[in-house]
Amino acid sequence: MNRLFNAKIEPGSLLLLALVLAVTVFLMWTSRNGIVILIMLLLMVVIIERVIHTNYTVTPDGKLIIHTGRFSKDKTVDLSQVRGVERMAGMRIFGKALRTFVVIECLDGRVYSLIPREEEKFLKYVRQYLDAE
Predict the structure, then answer these.
(1) pTM for the whole thing?
(2) Could you tell me the sign of the dihedral formed by the alpha carbons of 12, 9, 68, 118, in that order?
(3) What does residue 31 show for φ and ψ, rounded to 5 degrees?
(4) Are strands 63-68 and 54-58 parallel, antiparallel or unpaired?
(5) pLDDT of residue 32
(6) pLDDT at residue 128, as a whole number
(7) Is beta strand 92-93 parallel, antiparallel or unpaired with respect to 96-97?
(8) Half-sphere exposure in the Cβ direction for 5 (13 Å, CA)
(9) Residue of 5, 52, 106, 132 with fewest CB within 10 Å of its CB?
């Protein structure tokens, strides 16, 4: 059975969405250029789609599928080709990490940075699968 992990909604993504929304509203208020407004609205839809629909699926046959929304192609990682998986922290303030993420390093040198909502469960599940091999 597939195990599905949803992604966290990052404050940076919400900030980007708010910025694009503010620019779009400003352009609607001041400009009459419909093409630019349409492009900004489409950009907003893509951002919302990516934020809401990003998830990570581990299949029983040992594949990790990284799905980042309907407008982008899924990435598939063979877990038998994974060299290591670890939790990392981004910038720290007063010893507290502002952002944490999971890094998956493959044998061929590819590196994936994931932000699952339940990081510990994701790490435990993937490490358990890697130890079984």
Answers:
(1) 0.83
(2) positive
(3) -105, 155
(4) antiparallel
(5) 80
(6) 86
(7) antiparallel
(8) 23
(9) 132
CA–centroid distance for 21 within its chain: 21
Tell me phi and psi for residue 71, to 5 degrees: -95, 5
Which pLDDT belongs to residue 98?
78
Strands (E) located in 1-133: 3-6, 54-58, 63-68, 75-78, 82-89, 92-93, 96-97, 100-106, 111-114
Amino acid (one-letter) located at 14: L
Positions of the chain with pLDDT under 50 = none
Q: Tell me the C-alpha to C-alpha distance, in Å, between residue 108 and each of 64, 78, 104, 121.
A: 16, 11, 12, 26
Contact 54, 77 (CB under 8 A): no
If one counts every other C-beta atom within 10 angstroms of the C-beta of residue 126, the result is 22
3-state secondary structure of 69: coil
